[in-house]
Design brief:
The protein is mainly alpha-helical and about 30 residues long. The protein has one domain. Helices cover about 70% and strands about 0% of the residues. It has 2 helices and no strands.
Length: about 30
Amino acid sequence: SYPSSGELNFRLTTHDAPTIISAIEEKL
């Protein structure tokens, strides 16, 4: 399941950003 845009934006402002970006890139 994908996070809502609000949750995604929140995570991008935290130290989780690298992990999230890596996960997104793997799906591309």
